[in-house]
């Protein structure tokens, strides 16, 4: 464990000077409302909102086009019935192409489209049955947003991202999206 910690610290110490030279590199963190939408064939659908967050990094190849990768945690959903309980914890890793439309010195609009690897951990138990497992689902993702630039380095961003189906089982599926606000720092 100490060797791994040393390797991470040493790698970060070597990488930060490189990031300072990388003109188009940025990193950010957002927090907001994640929404789960469960659909069951013949039973309809239901929505559940939780607090979600994300951390991401990207690179702008030009002022209008770039690429971004990140990690999203959608939060936990807990359901209880008379003699049963279910817990769902979901997250995603994504990679996307980005497009930016500068409106003026302070404001810009952006969009992204890419692919996401969604992961859902599920546990269910009642008096007769216990189940625990995880499932991965690859899906397309897209997002739109706006940025307010305090200066050339620091921006306030607000965005909506749709991560598609995070869980697909016989007779139903679960979709997730994230509406968030955060800070982005450009190196």
TrEMBL record:
It is found in: Cell outer membrane. Pfam families: OMP_b-brl. One of its GO terms (cellular component) is cell outer membrane. This is Porin. InterPro entries: Beta-barrel_OMP, OMP/PagP_B-barrel. Keywords: Signal. Transmembrane segments: none annotated. Residues 7-187 form the Outer membrane protein beta-barrel domain. Residues 1-22 form the signal peptide.
